[in-house]
Each structure stands twice: as C-alpha cells, then as structure tokens.
Amino acid sequence: MSRNKKYRGQTIAVFLLLVLVLLGMTLVQGARIVQPGYVGVQVRLGASQDEPLDEGLHFVMPYLTQVHPIDTRIQRSEARGEAASKDLQTVAGTLVVNYHLEKSQVVQLYRQIGVDYEAVVIGPSVQEVFKAACSELQWPKHPRQTFCRLRR
Predict the structure, then answer these.
(1) Are residues 67 and 92 in the same domain?
(2) How far apart are alpha carbons 141 and 130 in whole angstroms?
(3) What is the pLDDT of residue 139?
(4) Which pTM was predicted?
(5) Quick one: pLDDT at residue 145?
(6) Quick check: 67 and 42 in contact, CB under 8 A?
(7) What pLDDT does 43 receive?
(8) Looking at the 3D structure of the chain, how many domains does it have?
(9) What number is the average pLDDT over the span 122-128?
(10) Are 138 and 85 in contact (CB under 8 A)?
(11) What is the pLDDT of residues 83-121, one digit of tens each?
C-alpha cells in the first residue's frame, strides 16, 4: 500500500510540474513588447481592436491575439516624378516627403488601408501634387535664368 502512495505522490508532483510549465509558457506567449516609436495594433481572431498599444510591455490573449507594430516616427519617402509645365515642357525631378503617422489614427489606417500605406496613399498623392504644381510653372525665357524650386 505504501508503494502505491509513493507512486501516486510522484505522479501528482509530475502532473503539477507539467501544469506549471504549460501555464508559464502560456504567460510568456501572451507578453508583447512594443518598441519606442511604434504603436501596436491588436488583431484578435481577425478583428482589429479599437485601442492601439503604446510602447512598452503588454499582455494579450496568447494564440488568439496578434500585435502588428506600426512605425510612428518621422519617415522619408522618395520618388521620381515627371510632369508637363505650363508651356508643355517636360519637368522631371526627385521628390522627397517627410511624414509621420498620428498615434490616434493608426488603428483606422490599419483597418482601411493596411500596412502598405506608403504605396497606396503617399506615393500617388505626391505624384498628384507634383503634377499640379508643375502645370502652373513656366519655363524660363532666357537660358541663364534658373528654374524655380518647389518647396512646401
């Protein structure tokens, strides 16, 4: 009888140790760190949550919630542009835009556009503004005059 109690006690100890290890692994899987300069968008079972995660340590539901980091630091987008001036001269240039995302609007941006917002929104908008600005420019009448630079 004492032999069965000994094995039973060892079995319970092994079972409790296994439960503690699994519980610890689950807690570790639920910990997420959002780096400085980023905002985390929580997606739980395919639905994005309304509140973004600020930088720091956060605990989410393991295996059910994903956290997508979105960069809110100042970013640089560079593109080549070509347009026609007022007198139908071809104007080509390199366009550089510095921008950053508002932390309060990141979840809405993620829902409506996704993570490829630079190619979807910023690139086409820069091209449109460049073409509109170039259409108002007139080429210099004298070769020694300099062509004005666009600055905004």
Answers:
(1) no
(2) 22
(3) 67
(4) 0.69
(5) 47
(6) yes
(7) 93
(8) 2
(9) 86
(10) yes
(11) 887 777 777 888 888 999 999 999 999 999 988 888 898
31 and 91 both lie in a single domain: no
Residues 120 and 86 in one domain: yes
Contact at 8 Å (CB) between 102 and 48? no
Q: Which domain holds residue 101?
A: 75-135
* pLDDT of res. 3: 63
Q: How far is CA 39 from CA 101, 111, 124, in A?
A: 10, 14, 25
Least confident interval from 20-24, 26-30, 70-74 = 26-30
Would residue 150 count as lying in a domain?
A: no
DSSP letter for 72, please.
-
Q: Are residues 11 and 66 in the same domain?
A: yes
d(CA 141, CA 10): 96
Is there a single domain that holds both residue 46 and residue 67? Answer: yes
State whether 67 and 79 are in the same domain.
no
Other Cβ atoms closer than 10 A to 37: 12
**Listed residue (103, 86, 95) closest to 130, CA to CA:** 95
- Two tokens at 20? 């503690």
Q: Residue 30 in contact with residue 62, Cβ under 8 Å?
A: yes
